[in-house]
Write a structure and sequence with these properties.
- The chain is globular and about 35 Å long.
- The chain has one domain.
- Helix 3 crosses helix 4.
- The strands form 2 sheets. A 6-stranded antiparallel beta sheet has the order 6-7-4-1-5-8.
- The protein has 4 helices and 8 strands.
- The protein is an alpha+beta fold.
- The mean pLDDT is about 90.
Length: about 150
């Protein structure tokens, strides 16, 4: 199924790591969302992201080596631009910030596709993310917790 997806992740401590061409980046602990597009299939893309062994091809591959994915929100759509619409919407939240400009958005003009949320109320952030995603695309985006 083609579409966009949002990985909701937890980073348990402040971390600094090298993220490809972005260089060394500092990430504050907390809740993060990464928005991506999967025109070849959401299931395959998310399975790759959640896999233990993979070549670090995208910015998110580096971040996933230190963060834990808690929930995946998927949105079936044929529009590749959906990932940008979702990322921009999430960044408009008063508790959201782009920690790294250009993260996951080297093929578009978005500020970032990795969003950090102030506070640690995970369930509230999940509800806000699902609410914002559903406003644009479908009444029932699917949110699942990885095994």
């Amino acid at each position: 199924m083609k579409g966009a997806y949002c990985l909701l992740m937890l980073l348990v401590e402040d971390t600094s790591l090298c993220v490809g061409a972005l260089g060394r980046v500092s990430f504050p602990k907390g809740v993060y969302a990464y928005v991506g597009s999967a025109q070849g299939g959401i299931e395959q893309r998310v399975r790759r992201h959640l896999g233990e062994t993979k070549r670090k091809r995208w910015h998110i591959d580096h971040f996933l080596s230190v963060a834990r994915t808690v929930t995946v929100v998927s949105v079936p759509t044929d529009r590749k631009s959906s990932e940008c619409v979702i990322a921009k919407s999430l960044l408009r939240s008063p508790v959201a910030q782009a920690v790294v400009t250009g993260f996951g958005s080297s093929d578009c003009r978005c500020e970032s596709h990795l969003i950090h949320f102030e506070g640690d109320e995970y369930e509230d952030i999940l509800e806000m993310v699902v609410g914002r995603v559903s406003m644009f695309f479908c009444p029932y985006p699917e949110a699942v917790r990885p095994p």
